[in-house]
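Researcher: We plan to redesign the surface later, but first we want a full-length starting point. Tokens attached.
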């Protein structure tokens, strides 16, 4: 399989985050079947940080896998993004297959655009 994709994220504080990526592989490229897979992602201030700023998984609804369509959606609701107090970090997102294999699909920096309009 190919190397992980560098995919920077921007979180707009106070807005819904719904970032969709389609995982295609092969020649010709076809969607990777994610049926039966789970996924996990953590955001930390730096790669070496022990503190997890955000943890998203398929189990907590923060990552939604699209089965045969090969889509991976990173999701945070507006309440969760409004609660963010930090401004930058790094992340990676791993796919866990039923076989026990783990594949890092995405990684990159995370920036937070601070909310000005608040209730």
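Model: Full-length starting sequence:
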């Amino acid at each position: 399989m190919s190397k992980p994709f560098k995919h920077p994220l921007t979180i707009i504080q106070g807005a819904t985050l719904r970032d969709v990526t389609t995982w295609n592989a092969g020649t010709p490229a076809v969607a990777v079947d994610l049926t039966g897979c789970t996924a996990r992602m953590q955001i930390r201030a730096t790669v070496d940080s022990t503190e997890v700023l955000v943890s998203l998984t398929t189990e907590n609804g923060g990552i939604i896998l699209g089965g045969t369509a090969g889509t991976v959606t990173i999701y945070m609701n507006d309440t969760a993004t409004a609660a963010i107090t930090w401004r930058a970090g790094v992340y990676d997102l791993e796919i866990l297959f039923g076989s026990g294999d783990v594949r890092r699909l995405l990684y990159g920096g995370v920036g937070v655009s601070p909310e000005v309009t608040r209730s």
